[in-house]
Amino acid sequence: MLPSQTYVNISFFQPHAFLMIGIPGHEAVHGWISIPFSSMYTVALTGNCLILLAVRKTPSLHQPMYYFLSMLALTDVGLTLSTLPTTLAVLWFGHRLIGFNACLVQMFFLHSFSVVESSVLLAMSFDRFVAISNPLRYATVLTNNVIIRIGIAIVTRATVSLFPGPFLLKRLNFCPGKIRLSHSFCFHADVMKQACADITVNILYGLYVVLSTVGVDSLLIFLSYTLILRTVMGLASPRERVRALNTCVSHILAVLIFYIPVIGVSMIHRFGRHLPHIVHALIAYVYLVVPPVLNPIIYSVKSKPIREAMLRLLREKRQG
Length: 320
Hints:
single chain, mainly alpha, receptor, G-protein coupled receptor, OR51/52/56-like, sensory transduction
């Protein structure tokens, strides 16, 4: 009985921790590399928190469009906080270990916020479609109750989609010598490759989540803008066409800076194994760090009401 138990314990192995990396091949200058990363994290948190405060404290911004923008800003804050601790720990202090369970928790939140962001961008495209195609019914279609239900549905969808991920990884047998991740945070595709077991179920699960969330969302966003363009082309005045399309510019930019890196990360993890590790790392950082940095900049530049509300907050802060 005892030899059998010993065999079982030895045959199934899960590491106590994984080894994270920062920028491969540039470990000696991680201290310098941490400066732009710290700056980007600061901009992301400050910008998105300013948007949240601006919408909350400005009654004129209590409209569906700005409620959805608040959802996007809150999601970007969550996405930033998901990667900030481990990334700065690696770059600042050279602390490269992350516990197995902590890695799974980070992975869950990281991917959940990504799915939430995709869903929020879809909801914002629906908002633009309703505002342009049927402006007279805009306020009656997108009521506060409808927006709350959309928000609950978005969070529920992300939670249900990502909940099985950590448990599917915990059932795997890992190799004692394979604990080195490709990033300074935990990706599902990266973690499952460390296993010494059949990962077919994990691969199919990951593919299902990507196609059923980001894949479906991107198609519906494309459909929304096809209908928006059709509506805009039906407007008689060229000035009205330009004005209608101008209300979509910020959202289109937000969609592009989110989905292009997502596609890049998915393609590299599946077909880019021959590429240098630094390419994997940089694409992942672009995917997770750049959108939360650029979104508040885009909306503060393109949206005059948001810009004025943010400047008003900063002036009040300075005077106070």
